[in-house]
Amino acid sequence: MRCVDKPPLPGVSASGMGLRLSQKFVFLLFLSGLVTLCFGALFFLPDSVRLKRIFLSKTETQPVTVGSGSENDAREHLKRPKDQEHPRGMTSAKGETSTKLKSLSRKPPVSHEATEERLAGGKAQEDLTLSRSKTESASERATSPDHGANSDTFSYKKFKRCLLKHPLGRDNGKPSDPKTNERREKVKEMMKFAWDNYKRYAWGKNELRPLTRNGHIGNMFGESSVIDSLDTLYIMGLMEEYNDAKEWVQTSLDLNSNGEASLFEVNIRYVGGLLSAYYLTGEELFKNKAVELGEKLLPAFNTPTGIPRGVINLGSGTSWSWGWASAGSSILAEFGTLHLEFVHLTELSSNPIYTEKVMNIRKLLNKIEKPHGLYPNFLSPVSGNWVQHHVSIGGLGDSFYEYLIKSYLMSDKTDDDAKKMYYSALEAIEANLVQKSPGGLTYMAEWRGGILDHKMGHLACFSGGMIGIGADDGAPEKRQHYLDLAAEITHTCHESYARSATKLGPEAFRFDGGAEATATRLSDRYYILRPEVIESYMYMWRLTHDPKYREWGWEAVEALEEHCRVESGFSGIRDVYTMTVSHDNMQQSFFLSETLKYLYLLFSDDDLLPLEDWVFNTEAHPLPIILLSQSSQPFRLE
């Protein structure tokens, strides 16, 4: 006996459940109409895109050619969705207070829920953030130029949730030790003094001439102290000054200059500074300006190899090599210092062309032969071959190596090609360039076609911090070695300061003819407010908490105050070995962007711009670590 749960449909016999022919025809007609209606709604209703993605698992994309390209490539590439998210396993190096260097320790991954709970708990910090980060009004957003940026793709709120810690720390990084906090406040006062004089006498110009109280314009676009100072002012809580700078960007920043522009300077200072300001504040103005400027840099890549030329006219798009560069070559430290900013331009614009341009550079560098594993400083953008076999970790080469390890860290440690290139280069550097003086000082010599020049430039002193932040990701048996090497190089650079009369370091110092860590040539004795030594102090403090790094930093503050501070700003000096100083009448923009920022961070707690979340570009502009799930481009060579 069979149970029937429901009564039979009209016209259907209970015994056979059959349908007459006419009823079948009507039923099929009704069913086909229903199917047509559903699929019509799916494909023709205005909001059907999301439904289509459910049913259409594969989409056709236009093939992308990686090469020299054209300036119209940016508009032709399809935008790729980034609609997945996962917790980041990135952790940061942090040691404990000790006078001995320790292996770097990594914190375990923190869930988004825990992060949000921690941020919500710090109400005082949230209030401070609200007072700083006044986002644009709806009308401002509506009138901001889009220039290819897709605001629907990148979510600033989502980005903030992905951070492991608040960018400004629980209490703006204020140290609990009163003495350290007093020193930090002194650095803040130095920044305000430098900025106020720049605004008073050189507003909108590249740099301040403090002795003559006027602005330095120069003939190159891309060195404005306003852009370089945005994030420094913000993290120091100088909000009135920050808002003045923001207003200048909104009303006076001209990106249609027809003058010469250094690709390198525009990228690290303008693009990097605007990106940093956007990520810290959420101001759409900065993001739009950064993407607009990034698009104007693309024509520089129109070469047979895709290696960009060093100079570009932002108005016409014409590019050329530096007149002083050997045989029209491009400079390693310039075309090799684009990766961090260009990857972020792809993140914000959803346009893969920026990442493709820098990945093409990396692909070419991997293909060509490297003498003794080293990267010479000059490369032809036409042939793709090295022009000279001059290798330096200082000027002309420096930031290329910096961007390899930082690209790996910024990719949430997924960019294995950058990691491999960095550690291979570091191995070659150790084998060929790292030297020990008779007095026991470790230094980086320069290499000229197989002949060592026992000179180390101030610019090369960044390498202590670079090797330090990369120590924990090297081979396990080499991690302590790398950290020790970083400490030794930083010590040598400190000695170049300690052995001068002013306690400031020369532009270059030598290790030959009986000299150690001192400048032997008059042309190398000047100091132009450079940050590299202090940069390494900051990183080594974060990695080890050895108090000597803060003491060394304070020595630099006292020397800057005594010898470089003048009535209307700060000035470089022409000879660090004489107490009767002669000033060069220039307050460099990197003094505001790098030197004072690194000093402020040195005397702050580690949760102010924590290394778990941020990587600093070569101009000290902090850029956030990118989650692989958010990235629209893989970090692996084809």
UniProtKB/TrEMBL annotation:
Its main location: membrane. Its cofactor is Ca(2+). Disulfide bonds join 461-493. It is an enzyme of class 3 (hydrolase). Residues 62-71 have a biased composition (Polar residues). GO terms for cellular component: endoplasmic reticulum; extracellular exosome; Golgi membrane. It is found in: Endomembrane system. Its EC number is 3.2.1.-. Keywords: Calcium, Disulfide bond, Glycosidase, Hydrolase, Membrane, Metal-binding, Signal-anchor, Transmembrane, Transmembrane helix. Residues 62-152, 165-184 are annotated as: Disordered. Pathway: Protein modification; protein glycosylation. Ca(2+) binds at residue 618. The chain crosses the membrane at residues 25-45. The active site is at 265 (proton donor), 398, 507 (proton donor), 532. Pfam families: Glyco_hydro_47. Residues 72-88, 113-126, 168-184 have a biased composition (Basic and acidic residues). It is a single-pass type II membrane protein. One of its GO terms (biological process) is carbohydrate metabolic process. It catalyses: N(4)-(alpha-D-Man-(1->2)-alpha-D-Man-(1->2)-alpha-D-Man-(1->3)-[alpha-D-Man-(1->2)-alpha-D-Man-(1->3)-[alpha-D-Man-(1->2)-alpha-D-Man-(1->6)]-alpha-D-Man-(1->6)]-beta-D-Man-(1->4)-beta-D-GlcNAc-(1->4)-beta-D-GlcNAc)-L-asparaginyl-[protein] (N-glucan mannose isomer 9A1,2,3B1,2,3) + 4 H2O = N(4)-(alpha-D-Man-(1->3)-[alpha-D-Man-(1->3)-[alpha-D-Man-(1->6)]-alpha-D-Man-(1->6)]-beta-D-Man-(1->4)-beta-D-GlcNAc-(1->4)-beta-D-GlcNAc)-L-asparaginyl-[protein] (N-glucan mannose isomer 5A1,2) + 4 beta-D-mannose; N(4)-(alpha-D-Man-(1->2)-alpha-D-Man-(1->2)-alpha-D-Man-(1->3)-[alpha-D-Man-(1->3)-[alpha-D-Man-(1->2)-alpha-D-Man-(1->6)]-alpha-D-Man-(1->6)]-beta-D-Man-(1->4)-beta-D-GlcNAc-(1->4)-beta-D-GlcNAc)-L-asparaginyl-[protein] (N-glucan mannose isomer 8A1,2,3B1,3) + 3 H2O = N(4)-(alpha-D-Man-(1->3)-[alpha-D-Man-(1->3)-[alpha-D-Man-(1->6)]-alpha-D-Man-(1->6)]-beta-D-Man-(1->4)-beta-D-GlcNAc-(1->4)-beta-D-GlcNAc)-L-asparaginyl-[protein] (N-glucan mannose isomer 5A1,2) + 3 beta-D-mannose. The keyword Disulfide bond applies. GO terms for molecular function: calcium ion binding; mannosyl-oligosaccharide 1,2-alpha-mannosidase activity. Involved in the maturation of Asn-linked oligosaccharides. Progressively trim alpha-1,2-linked mannose residues from Man(9)GlcNAc(2) to produce Man(5)GlcNAc(2). Belongs to the glycosyl hydrolase 47 family. This is alpha-1,2-Mannosidase. It comes from Lates calcarifer.
